[in-house]
Design goal:
Elements lengths: L1 E2 L4 E5 L1 H9 L4 H10 L1 E4 L4 E7 L7 E8 L3 E10 L5
Parallel strand pairs: 2-6
Antiparallel strand pairs: 1-2, 3-4, 4-5, 5-6
């Protein structure tokens, strides 16, 4: 999978794939989340991306990722809310 937004290939860790399966997040949803989701950076390389899918009832779906030579998706969350909100 490639991200035009980040201009990098995407690596989804085993842990993130397991979370995707347990939270019923498809690869298509993951791609939409990465390309169109709201971004919040912790620092220059660590970030969260979150996107609301109208057909899901579990609030925002989000990923925690690291920008390296690839975009590394570390985990996939649902029922997400931005810190401080």
């Amino acid at each position: 999978m490639y991200s035009p937004r980040f201009e990098k290939y995407i690596h989804v860790t085993r842990h993130a794939r397991e979370r995707m399966a347990s939270r019923n997040v498809s690869e298509d949803e993951l791609a939409i989340l990465i390309e169109k989701g709201a971004l919040k950076y912790k620092d220059a390389t660590r970030l969260w991306a979150a996107h609301h899918f109208g057909n899901r009832s579990d609030n925002l779906v989000s990923v925690a990722a690291i920008i390296e030579d690839k975009l590394v998706v570390k985990t996939v969350m649902h029922y997400f809310h931005w810190e401080g909100e």
